Amino acid sequence: MSFGIHCSLVVNSVWENIEFSLDKQIDFKIVMSNCIIDSGIAAAMAGFSAPTSLGFGQVKSPVMYRVDYRDGAWQQGRALPYQNIEIDPAAKVLHYAQEVFEGLKAYKIDNPRANFFRPLDNHDRLNFSARRMCMPEIPADLFMEGISVVTALSEPLIPTQAGQSLYLRPFMIGLTGALGMGPSSEYAFIVIASPSEAYHAGEMKVLIEREGCRAAVGGTGAAKTGGNYAAATESAQRTQAMGYHQSLWLDPRNMKDIEELSGMNVFALIDGELHTPRLTPSFLKGITRDSVIQLARHKGYEVVERTMPIEELLADIKSGSCVEAFACGTAAIVSPISDIAEADGTAYELSQSDVVAAELRRGLLDIQERRTEDPFGWTSEVEDQFYQLALAG
Considering only the top CATH level, what class is 5-199+374-392? Predict the structure, then answer.
């Protein structure tokens, strides 16, 4: 694997040409970690007390992981007390948004050790995003070291009720302090964590976004980078002010075809089949989306990935052909959609709510939380060496 900086432009309109794939089997093992455990972690953990109500992403674990890239190479990883990042005011991340991130979870439900769900797929997607943003790839052993040591150190804080988890946020930022255009030469890869509830529990009302775009044709929509989410903020504010939960984004070229919600993928039950927008380079290749597709097919559902014109879906809801819709994502898991609305107040109410969605949510959570057999090989325990590191620290 090369650790140099690779800048990859997404210019092909066919998603399959985007060079990363999902659904790796979990057979990766880390060569013995040489992560440094900071001496201040014990005191940080001892002084931490989690509130009764966790919310999502509000409570931060008192530990973090950091590894720096300089002189063309990744350095030694360090587990640290959670702390502020010292950064040059001219750093590339602040002026040119050179940043990528991921989101995944660690679970500990009725098992002695915490486990991950498809972490190598998150690693691959992070590196896809890094290439698009002209950043160095993070080696798999450092990515897994980061999420594993943070999880092992945070294990006493992992909530143990179904649907709860330790939400992990790995991210990479460009640190070079220079105001000229161009990629950074120094980077930090950091992992922070948050004991959390599910992001959105309950039904959602969504508003069709017919004016704005979160990502342009040929832009960064398929990368998980902060600018895409910043571009969605104005729409989110308008949507929530009107009493809805999420914006439903249309394709940036013609503003006719459904793509995704601001942070989730969309499914609709039409004539007994599950339909979801086919992937394009302007929105994210969701790991939960892929898991729902595979699980639904495993359960006997016909799943159709296709171009989905918004007018066609609205007509299907009016005619009764479409009876249910839901969204899915790492943070939200699977959330039912109760109605889809226009800005003028016209609402298209789904006649069925949280039936197929509930079945798939239960099935996915049962695998993620290891209550049932995992026929896909998606789950993996945190390796013992990281618990040993945590104890030694």
Answer: alpha beta
Between CA 173 and CA 240 the distance in angstroms is 30
Residue 315: count other Cβ atoms within 10 Å of its Cβ: 13
Mean pLDDT by 10 residues, the chain (393 residues): 40 40 59 86 91 90 98 97 97 98 96 95 98 98 97 95 94 97 97 88 91 92 95 95 96 97 95 97 96 98 98 98 96 94 97 96 97 96 91 76
The three-class DSSP label of residue 259 is strand
Closest CA to 342 of 200, 213, 247: 247
Structure tokens at 361: 């949510």
- Round to whole Å and give the CA distance between 340 and 354: 15
Tokens of 344: 């003028």
Contact 288, 328 (CB under 8 A): yes
Coil/strand/helix, residue 66? strand
CATH architecture of the domain with residue range 204-353: Alpha-Beta Barrel (3.20)
Listed residue (82, 196, 78) closest to 146, CA to CA: 78
The dihedral sign for the CA sequence 169, 172, 176, 177 = negative
Cα separation of 135 and 184, whole Å?
A: 8
Domain locations in the chain as residue ranges: 5-199+374-392, 204-353
- E strands present in 41-185: 63-70, 73-74, 78-81, 99-101, 104-107, 115-117, 135-136, 165-174
Give the dihedral of Cα atoms 251, 256, 261, 264; nearest 10 deg: -70
| Structure token digits, residue 385 | 């060496």
Annotate 19-40 with b (16+ C-beta within 10 A) or e (fewer). Answer: eeebebebeeebeebebebbee
Q: Which of 344, 290, 350 is nearest to 322 (CA)?
A: 350
